[in-house]
Amino acid sequence: MPPLSPSADCKLPMGLASGITQDSQISASGHVGYWEPKLARLNNPGKYNAWSIIKKEHEHPWIQVDLQRQVVITGIQTQGAMQLLKHLYTVEYFVTYSKDGRKWITFKGRHSKTQMGNSDGTNVKENHIDPPIIARYIRLYPTKFHNRPTFRIELLGCEVEGCSLPLGMENGAIKNSEITASSYKKTWWSSWEPSLARLNLKGRTNAWQPKVNNKDQWLQIDLKHFTKITSIITQGATSMSTAMYVKTFSIHYTDDNSTWKPYLDVCTSMEKVFTGNINTDGHVKHFFKPPILSRFIRIIPKTWNQYIALRIELFGCEVF
């Protein structure tokens, strides 16, 4: 079989830094003290902010990420950590991968299986996975290190079937006029307009909030073209120390902005209710299987914490 040749766009963060990858998906051969595998997230802040282990207590230490589906991996970003004034980092490592968690393959690249790691505890080192691999499980084995084998990581890639690019909420490709809502909250000092419903938007007023909080509210995106929508990320917001986020929601879609259809659960054939956020800044990602083929999409909050607030990104590709 010829080497995999994904598009140049197949370099998306797979969810460690953002929190989409859950703590339970990150495991290791062991760890030292409070330096648990769940902390191995790129740019993770705090006193204990990485995975670290004592090599002499583990002959071949490793850290593993279960992506819960097979994906294309095209790159790995690594970072060490600081303990007081001491740099902890991995100098060299190798990668193994698996589709089922039983049969493991060592990634050898085009020249060597050894990947060059970090040279201090703070900066990020990126290695290309060339040729790319398809896997569900990824393991990193540190072989050389400074003080202790230590990792904060991010995996880069895309979905196997492709069609997983951000559609433009975060980067502004979707225009403000293309984002509408049932209503929005406006006070003399703030205006929580639908155009603010952009993933990771900063500022004092940085999300969509409806005028009233009930189940008749919705946020709508006009993608301008018939689009294959494969996934969504949702995020909440904070206002005056109040945590606001949507806990459950449903999705409706249409081609003509008139006849709306609910996205159905494939098992029950009933309207699917998606689990939303549990805090204000974390990301929750849901995949649409089957994907949605449409121009207009609505997110309809079902339950929420304190007040409805949404920041989102849609993923997919234009069909025609």
Question: What would a concise description of this structure say?
Answer:
This protein is 0% helix and 47% strand. By secondary structure, it is an all-beta fold. The strands form two sheets. Strands 1, 2, 3, 4, 5, 6, 7, 8, 9 and 10 form a ten-stranded antiparallel beta sheet that branches. Strands 11, 12, 13, 14, 15, 16, 17, 18 and 19 form a nine-stranded antiparallel beta sheet that branches.
Commentary on this structure:
With 320 residues, the protein is an all-beta fold. The protein has no helices and 19 strands. The chain has strands spanning 12-13, 26-28, 51-52, 63-79, 81-83, 86-98, 105-106, 114-116, 125-146, 150-159, 165-166, 179-181, 219-235, 237-239, 242-254, 261-262, 274-275, 284-305, 311-318. Strands 1, 2, 3, 4, 5, 6, 7, 8, 9 and 10 form a 10-stranded antiparallel sheet that branches. A hairpin with a 2-residue loop joins strand 14 (237-239) and strand 15. The chain is globular, with a radius of gyration of 21 Å. The relative contact order is 0.16. Keywords: Disulfide bond. This is F5/8 type C domain-containing protein. Residues 10-158, 163-317 form the F5/8 type C domain. GO terms for molecular function: signaling receptor activity. InterPro entries: FA58C (IPR000421), Galactose-bd-like_sf (IPR008979), Neuropilin_MCO_CoagFactor (IPR050633).
Descriptive labels:
9-stranded antiparallel sheet; 47% strand; globular; mainly beta; 320 residues
What fraction strand?
A: over 45%
Order of helices and strands: EEEEEEEEEEEEEEEEEEE
Stretches with pLDDT under 50, minimum 5 residues: none
Tell me the span between the first and last alpha carbons.
31 Å
Mass-distribution shape? globular
- Describe the largest sheet: 10 strands, antiparallel
Helix amount: under 10%
Classification by helices and strands: mainly beta
Report the average pLDDT across residues. Answer: 94
How many helices does DSSP assign? 0
- Strands, total number: 19
Taking all Cα atoms into account, the compactness measure Rg is 21 Å
